[in-house]
What we know:
Elements: H1 2-13, E1 25-29, E2 39-48, E3 67-76, E4 82-84, E5 90-91, E6 102-112, E7 114-117, E8 123-126, E9 143-145, E10 148-152, E11 159-167, E12 180-186, H2 188-194, E13 199-205, E14 220-223, H3 244-253, H4 259-266, E15 275-280
Amino acid sequence: MRFATVALIVAVALPFPFPVVAQARFEIAVPAAMRATPVTGRMYVFVTRHDDVEPRLQVRHESDCTSFFGVDVTQLAAGTPGVVGGSTLGYPVTSLKDIPAGDYYVQGLLNVYSEFRRADGHTLWLHDDQWEGQQFNKSPGNLVSAVRKVHLDPAKGDTIRLELTRVLPPIDLPPDSKWVKHIKIQSKILTAWWGRPIYLGATVLLPRGYETDTARRYPTVYEQGHFNLRPPFGFSTDSSSETPEQRAARLARSAREPGFEFYSAWSSANFPRMIAVTFQHPTPYFDDSYAVNSAN
């Protein structure tokens, strides 16, 4: 009887083996030919059913955007993969496990981080903005894979391997014109604080007659918003008609008139003469910051 009791206790105490649940996963690696030294950053995979543009370019703030998942990598050696699996957080789908089985277009991306040795003694690894406004899916120097069409079934233990074989190119900067000027300077104060070169910029919209009426002083309107290189107030000399998609996008941002309509008014003889300015002040944390909560 005593032996039977002990046997029962042991049987209850020992854990029953649970079956291992197979899960799909992505392994994303940087080949040595692309980068021989270890890299720190955040590795992403984008999963979409649409192939009209690259999956990385289908990401936006809305909750119906393309699903993507990200994982931090630290000093990742060439050829060693970053792994995105069922426990990796994503948006708008929380987990890879929640994606329905089917055919998808997938793409990997590495948002490359740089070391910032700040003046306060802290050392941080963050993305160094490349004048794209902290848009990780477009930032020059980031690494991306080719787009692949795969059959994805999260319930199966398939491993999808991607190699990051392309470097995103520099941003195409808009040229200056009679009406619009672009300014970019290195900030000595911010550079000293962050321990790396930090830049500030502005896009300036000039009034009619500015180049000839050199003695005149003008009132100035400052437009504060998120990072962009476009002229203030949507100003545009492009007379092309808006597509329905462009009109919808404009009205989603604001109720103002089309850019060419504003240009026609701005350049007319009766429009009040003034200067308009927008700012570029990206930080390693976000696409803008320095103009906020500042006495200046």
